[in-house]
Amino acid sequence: MPRHIGFIPDGNRRWAVARGLTKEAGYAYGIDPGLLLIAKCKACGIAEVSIYCFTQDNTKRPAIQHQAFSEASVVFACEIARRGAALLVVGDETSAQFPETLKTFRQRQGSGIKVNLLVNYGWKWDIAGLANGGLRSDEVSRLDLIVRWGGGRRLSGFLPVQSVYADIYVREEYWPDYSPEHFEQALAWFKNQDRTLGG
Amino acid sequence: MPRHIGFIPDGNRRWAVARGLTKEAGYAYGIDPGLLLIAKCKACGIAEVSIYCFTQDNTKRPAIQHQAFSEASVVFACEIARRGAALLVVGDETSAQFPETLKTFRQRQGSGIKVNLLVNYGWKWDIAGLANGGLRSDEVSRLDLIVRWGGGRRLSGFLPVQSVYADIYVREEYWPDYSPEHFEQALAWFKNQDRTLGG
Fold first, then answer.
1. 10 Å Cβ neighbour count for A80?
2. Would residue A198 be called left, alpha or beta, if left means φ above 0 and alpha means ψ between -120 and 50 degrees?
3. Which of B153, B161, B170, B194 has the highest number of chain A CBs within 10 A, making it the mutation to test binding with A?
4. Among A192, B7, B147, B155, which has the minimal tally of Cβ within 10 Å of its Cβ?
5. Most B CBs within 10 Å, among A8, A123, A154, to test the B interface
6. Is B127 within 8 Å of A131 when comparing Cβ atoms?
7. Distance CA A191, CA A177 (A)
8. pLDDT per residue rounded down to tens, chain A (199 residues)
């Protein structure tokens, strides 16, 4: 079993457009799947999960989208905290793009499964910390497995240092179409990967 | 067309074992495919390629394997230089594991296609440079596409910073079974990827 899993829930906008909705309408449909996914991880005894909410680059998108994914991230984080988890939000809190409500979670709070939410995160921002002694995400451990929805075969700047040895599993479905079997199939696939870590 | 492609030529040992050879015998069979691949990249007008030869972690393998992949890397590098390329070797040259012959290539030499060979490379070694102003691989540009042979869906520490937005294409074949159509199919696949770079 993987100890730490990263999730890249991509495809919200494409999902919305395919249903005749506006692009920004897709983000709100990503919240419930995320809560289901975390419940599933808890049930399976996963110790730590990291979820890509939005990046500094994403905030350059149209304001209406920015507002929608920022609000969805806040609702998602607060509900995770309410249900019980050791929640940490990782991202540049010195910027106006960082949701005020989430500043309290820049230090880990709560107990239970470790949940790291990347909010206004940037890989450059993260590794710039190395000039001052450590990654800005240095409370986030090495990833064993990364699951991405929406078909993209890339990391898109997701925790580049913690991802160095992670196995990457991709689903073609858009994130709002998440089903628990995606997660089960990711775990089954992971079991068959040969992990040598270079040795 | 991708400007810069990374190659992870994995599966040499598995290829050898499948043919009844000793594991270490596989590395020598990876040289000619590598020369063919670079010739193909030149013909297609690719500006820069980066190739994973061996890592600091790999040198912890049995000595007979270490000697075999180190020698294969030296032969490969010298032949690339002889055929003409702007060759740079990236790796920790202060260690005894770094082949003496390749020290001259720690600064880029020659002209033509840029070829970066990762020799005694380590992702930790690379990013540790950020504490002193820049990546140790800072002459290596951002990757557009990474092609990996041998079926592994992971980066295994391959240039974590330059890989942040790279599309990752995986072949199941072991590296010594390289065929030019693998490369052609990688390019065709890459053309169909949607590259937003987070925007």
1. 22
2. left
3. B153
4. A192
5. A154
6. no
7. 24
8. 999 999 999 999 999 999 999 999 999 999 999 999 999 999 999 999 999 999 999 999 999 999 999 999 999 999 999 999 999 999 999 999 999 999 999 999 999 999 999 999 999 999 999 999 999 999 999 999 999 999 999 999 999 999 999 999 999 999 999 999 999 999 999 999 977 776 6
Q: What is the pLDDT of residue A194?
A: 79
- For A165, the closest of B127, B156, B165 (CB atoms) is B156
Residue A18 is given by DSSP the state H
Name the A residues in 46-75 with CB < 8 Å from any B CB.
Answer: 55, 57-58, 60-61
Maximum distance among all Cα pairs of chain A, rounded to whole angstroms: 50
CB contacts of A156 in chain B (<8 Å) are 164-165, 198
Rounded to whole angstroms, how far apart are CA atoms B37 and A9? 35
DSSP type of residue A128: H
Cβ-based contacts under 8 A for chains A and B: 90
In the chain, the amino acid numbered B16 is: A
Residue A44 backbone phi and psi in degrees, to 5: -90, -5
The pair of structure tokens assigned to B173 is 């074949």
Task: For chain A, give the number of residues.
Answer: 199
B127 touches chain A (CB under 8 A): yes
Whether the CB-CB separation of B89 and B52 falls below 8 Å is answered with no
Select from B105, B3, B83, B89 the least CA-distant residue to B49: B3
**The complex's ipTM?**
0.95
> What pLDDT does B124 receive?
97
Instruction: Give me the residues of chain B with pLDDT under 70, please.
Output: 198-199
Residue listed under structure tokens 């020598």: B28
Contact status of A185 with chain B (Cβ, < 8 Å): no
